[in-house]
Write a structure and sequence with these properties.
This protein is mainly α. It has a domain at about 115-285: MetI-like fold. It contains 13 helices and no strands. Helix 4 (about 105-140) packs across helix 7, helix 5 (about 145-160) packs across helix 7 (about 195-230) and helix 6 (about 160-175) runs parallel beside helix 11.
């Protein structure tokens, strides 16, 4: 397994470079104009200097090579310096900067990341914790009242878009009942018990909306996988040997049923970092999803390129994690 992991990581390098080139090329062909954000009152010579400072006068391949160097060399070195306090080289190096704010893109991402992890990350975790038991019980008690309710919950949760669910939550629990705030206050700092309760109150609605949506999808996969394994020969053999029903279901059937579900869960994890863009817009959560929208609207290519590439890295990484978990869940799977 260790050899397989190292081999996959080595193969991931050319894959990610190819992905970065595709992302860079697509944005190069996009109709957005980075200079559109510059006021029309700025003289033409000043606009030319701004375009030159952004590197827009350089050929495509030169700008792509510069971005690769900044992202893969300069940014990691800067991160090492921040973590260790060391000074590597002269300490002055070009970084990937936003065209709109002129701030380093990685600093903008680090600033928004906690909001995304608190809201979207917790929602995904709760969604998985809800979905797995619902799927297991629904499959084991197929066509029972619990299975019917679970099916209804899954169909409604997956069919109704989050922008509608979020709007209904705001209307009912904020406008009519006044239980929770209608928007997320990103300036709130948790210092004491009242501020902690305020943080929990403003997280309840966006976390619930996303958790229900995620749970609805994963529970269907869990139920289908459990039903497929409950009728296998090894289950009848385990029961014939006298194993307790709980051990048969929770040890043998659940472990084998989790193998395909792991793919769904693992590939959904990058969505935590990408952010549920629609839900973040509804509840005014300034996470990575909202940052991506700002970058797209402003034709901020360095910001969009970096964010999109980070999402691609996460997808490749969690594909590898899913493959490793296959081997843990099923000892018969070996890659070496």
């Amino acid at each position: 397994m260790f050899t397989y992991t190292i081999r996959r990581l080595i193969y991931a390098v050319p894959t990610l470079i190819a992905i970065s080139f595709i992302i860079f090329s697509i944005l190069e062909l996009s109709p957005g104009d980075p200079m559109a954000q510059v006021p029309l009152t700025v003289p033409a010579e000043e606009r030319a200097k701004i375009a030159e400072a952004m590197g827009l006068n350089e050929p495509f391949i030169v700008r792509y090579g510069l971005w690769l160097r900044q992202f893969f060399i300069n940014e990691p070195l800067n991160l090492i310096e921040q973590w260790t306090g060391w000074t590597i080289g002269d300490g002055e190096r070009l970084r990937v900067r936003s065209w709109i704010t002129r701030a380093p893109v990685t600093d903008l991402i680090a600033e928004r990341l906690p909001q995304t992890l608190w809201v979207v990350g917790l929602a995904y975790l709760f969604g998985v914790m809800i979905a797995v038991p619902i799927g297991v019980i629904s499959a084991y008690r197929q066509y029972s009242w619990f299975d019917q309710l679970g099916t209804l919950f899954s169909m409604v949760g997956f069919s109704v878009p989050t922008f509608l669910t979020g709007t209904l939550f705001i209307l009912i629990f904020s406008v009519w009942l006044g239980w929770f705030p209608d928007s997320y206050d990103t300036t709130l700092v948790v210092r004491d018990w009242p501020s902690f309760l305020a943080q929990v109150r403003q997280m309840i609605m966006p976390v619930t909306v996303l958790a229900l949506f995620n749970a609805a999808q994963i529970s269907r996969f869990m139920r289908a996988s459990m039903l497929e394994n409950l009728n296998q020969d090894y289950v009848r053999t385990a029961r014939a040997k006298g194993l307790r029903e709980r051990a048969v279901v929770l040890v043998h059937v659940l472990r084998n049923s989790m193998i395909p579900v792991v793919t769904v869960i693992a590939l959904g994890v990058p969505q935590i970092f990408a952010g549920a863009i629609i839900t973040e817009q509804i509840f005014r959560v300034n996470g990575l999803g909202a940052l991506l929208i700002v970058g797209i609207e402003g034709a901020d290519y360095p910001l969009v390129q970096t964010l999109t590439f980070i999402f691609a890295v996460l997808i490749v990484l969690f594909n590898l994690i899913a493959d490793i978990l296959y081997g843990i869940l099923d000892p018969r799977i070996r890659y070496d």
